């Protein structure tokens, strides 16, 4: 829970009854927000060298490979992306960067092994998540996907043409426009990482073959981060514990088979299935059995079997302000940095395991104080100051992610509010779908941005009702006006204790006609039972699924979670409203928790913006 302490600074406290401030003295230091700070130009270079010759597939919109690309076919399934329906297979894909999930590395790995990966990637900005997928595909399976960063030259690319990468330069022949032939020299990746004696010993096998191989991968990716050294970390949260295909399973089983074990406490993300109920839920035996094998491999290396949650910040083991950790799972990374004030990069799946096996992470990015300073400022419009609607938080997060890109942003104008854990969870999760940044600040709310530490610069972007209406429209594709719904999808990320309390109060004495399914971590469910929140939910008929989360629900018709007859779903999660349509093949509509309960009772929801966004009956898109 986040609160403001008596001394006036904002700090993240796990115990809301704590009277004293937990923030260290450095958190109240005052420094001006950099005005007009411009990063040094990026010279075109390889992240992963290689050769390719294929047609150009171009978009100026970042793409999350997980939840946005089918790993078995290469088709773009993100319904919000301009390339929806196009195949990446055999094309040179040019995008500014990845976005969203840390699991893009897993998807690129599966694409490469399945023979449907892009021939190469051309990026505006470095993306270590995608680069790692290529490195592992090459190291383990001999299936390399070249990755090049073009920096400012990305803006000069044509939108179509033929591409050649020859290992030292990029050549594009455009069918139209000027120039008809573009040549961009590409530098090779640099390696300036300094190793300690302990690092050298790890590489030499002092702690076994598993730790040695993991450290070799660590070293390769550290150079891509521009790290000059490694840092000891105190804990890891592993993201890629869910089944994406045989390649990732083989990678994890390889380390388990050679006796590798975690070097630091390691929690696990949600897995592919409820390990106790997957057969009863009608989940395909292949997914159930392969997903269980993957979870077992992680458990055999020392992963915490009691965790299995996409919201590890809700666990008692959540890190403290300033603690150096290594987390995967995009919403968890963002909450960890932003709300808890601990320090972690947005670590790719597979690399998070290598860090867990060594206890060492690249000292780069937001592990470093200077990289946590905001370089983008936004303010909630005064007209929205009186809005009291849970939807405000995911909509602000979704818009903030869109405009932030890879930058660390600070938001002003929310300091008079007292957000619940679930509010900040909703903001962080929605932010993570549209941004590649690992964190944000909210003045007066998050622990590293007490009022006055970062005075607003002269130029501050305003977050307007029009911005949030645009986010609402994007997240409500496929329906307008009164719409029948048969499933209410709650708990993405996993339900928090305050959400259990709210839902228990809302459903008291109510009936439902639609199915209400909650995904939650077992630890939080135990807390909810102790508080008496589960009894009214059981009487109401809500179903609680553990271990997995909604993001891993099979496609409609492939399980009893979402059947072929279910046409529309409603959720309180901005994250799931974004990813759900591509994952399920069904529209997933966004509403606050109270409206979700109303929809569950009536079996209908009126899809129109809330009154504070205008309330008009607007066109919101075609059904996917």
Could you walk me through the main structural features you see in this protein, from its secondary elements to its overall organization?
With 624 residues, the protein is an alpha/beta fold. The protein has four domains: 45-185, Glucose Oxidase, domain 1 (3-Layer(bba) Sandwich), CATH 3.50.30.10; 197-366, Aconitase, domain 3 (2-Layer Sandwich); 373-473, no CATH class; 476-613, 2-Layer Sandwich (Aconitase, domain 3), CATH 3.30.499.10. The chain is 29% helix and 16% strand. It is built from 16 helices and 26 strands. It has an eight-stranded mixed beta sheet with strand order 3-7-6-5-4-8-9-10, with helices on one face. A five-stranded parallel beta sheet has the order 23-22-21-24-25, with helices on both faces. A four-stranded parallel beta sheet has the order 18-17-16-19. Helix 5 (246-257) links the parallel strand 12 and strand 13 (266-268). The protein starts with a strand and ends in a 17-residue tail after the last strand. The model is unreliable at 1-32, 34-39 and 620-624 (pLDDT under 50).
The CATH topology of the largest domain turns out to be Aconitase, domain 3
Give the count of helical stretches: 16
- Which CATH architecture of the largest domain would you pick? 2-Layer Sandwich
Unreliable stretches: 1-32, 34-39, 620-624
Return the structural class: alpha/beta
- How many domains? The number is 4
Helix content: 25-40%
Gross geometry: globular
Q: What is the highest CATH level, the class of the largest domain?
A: Alpha Beta
Question: What's the rounded overall pLDDT mean?
Answer: 91
Q: Please give the largest β-sheet.
A: 8 strands, mixed
> What is the topology, as strand order, of the major beta sheet?
3-7-6-5-4-8-9-10
Number of strands: 26
Estimated radius of gyration? 23 Å
Protein name: Aconitase X catalytic domain-containing protein
GO molecular function: lyase activity
Keywords: Iron, Lyase
Pfam families: AcnX (PF04412), AcnX_swivel_put (PF01989)
């Amino acid at each position: 829970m986040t609160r403001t302490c008596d001394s006036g600074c904002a700090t993240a406290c796990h115990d809301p009854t704590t009277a004293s401030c937990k923030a260290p003295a450095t958190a109240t230091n005052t420094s001006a927000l950099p005005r007009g700070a411009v990063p040094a130009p990026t010279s075109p270079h390889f992240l992963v060298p290689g050769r390719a010759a294929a047609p150009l597939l171009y978009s100026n919109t970042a793409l999350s490979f997980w939840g946005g690309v089918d790993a078995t076919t290469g088709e773009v399934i993100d319904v919000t992306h301009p390339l929806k329906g196009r195949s990446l297979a055999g094309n040179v894909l040019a995008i500014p960067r990845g976005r969203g999930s840390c699991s893009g590395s897993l998807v690129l790995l599966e694409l490469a092994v399945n023979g449907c990966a892009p021939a190469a990637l051309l990026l505006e900005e470095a993306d270590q998540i995608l680069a790692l997928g290529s490195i592992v595909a090459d190291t383990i399976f001999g299936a390399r996907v070249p990755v090049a960063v073009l920096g400012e030259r990305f803006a000069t690319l044509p939108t179509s043409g033929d591409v050649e990468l020859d290992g030292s330069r990029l050549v594009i022949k455009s069918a139209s426009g000027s120039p008809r032939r573009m040549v961009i020299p590409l530098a090779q990746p640099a390696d300036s990482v300094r190793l300690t004696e302990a690092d050298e010993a790890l590489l030499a096998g002092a702690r076994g073959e598993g730790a040695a191989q993991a450290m070799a991968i660590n070293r390769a990716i550290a150079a891509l981060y521009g790290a000059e050294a490694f840092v000891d970390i105190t804990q890891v949260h592993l993201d890629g514990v869910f089944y994406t295909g045989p390649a990732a399973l083989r990678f994890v089983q390889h380390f388990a088979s050679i006796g590798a074990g975690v070097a630091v406490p390691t929690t696990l993300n949600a897995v592919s299935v409820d390990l106790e109920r997957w057969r009863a839920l009608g989940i395909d035996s292949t997914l159930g059995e392969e997903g269980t094998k993957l979870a077992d491999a992680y458990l055999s290396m020392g992963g915490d079997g009691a965790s299995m949650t996409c919201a590890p910040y809700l666990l008692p083991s959540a890190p403290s302000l300033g603690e150096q950790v290594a987390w995967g799972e995009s919403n968890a990374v963002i909450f960890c940095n932003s709300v808890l004030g601990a320090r972690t990069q947005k670590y790719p799946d597979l690399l998070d395991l290598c860090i867990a096996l060594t206890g060492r992470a690249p000292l780069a990015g937001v592990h470093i104080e200077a990289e946590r300073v905001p370089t983008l400022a936004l303010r909630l419009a005064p007209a929205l100051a009186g809005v009291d609607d849970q939807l405000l938080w995911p909509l602000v997060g979704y818009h903030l992610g869109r405009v932030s890109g890879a930058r660390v942003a600070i938001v002003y104008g929310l300091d008079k509010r007292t957000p619940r854990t679930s509010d900040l969870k909703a903001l962080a999760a929605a932010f993570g779908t549209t941004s590649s940044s690992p964190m944000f600040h909210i003045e007066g709310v998050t622990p590293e941005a007490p009022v006055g530490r970062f005075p607003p610069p002269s130029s501050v972007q305003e977050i307007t009702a029009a911005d949030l209406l645009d986010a609402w429209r994007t997240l409500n594709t496929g329906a307008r006006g009164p719409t029948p719904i048969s499933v209410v999808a709650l708990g993405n990320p996993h339900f928090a204790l305050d959400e259990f309390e709210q839902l228990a109060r809302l459903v008291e004495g109510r009936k439902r006609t639609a199915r209400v399914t909650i995904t939650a971590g077992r630890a939080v469910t135990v807390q909810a039972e102790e508080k008496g929140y589960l009894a009214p939910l059981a009487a109401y008929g809500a179903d609680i699924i553990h271990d997995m989360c909604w993001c891993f629900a099979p496609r409609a018709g492939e399980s009893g979670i979402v059947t072929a007859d279910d046409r529309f779903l409603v959720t309180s999660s901005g994250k799931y409203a974004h990813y759900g349509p591509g994952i399920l093949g069904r529209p997933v509509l966004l509403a606050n928790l109270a409206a979700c309960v109303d929809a569950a009772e009536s079996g209908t929801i009126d899809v129109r913006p809330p009154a504070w966004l205008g309330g008009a009956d607007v066109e919101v898109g075609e059904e996917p």
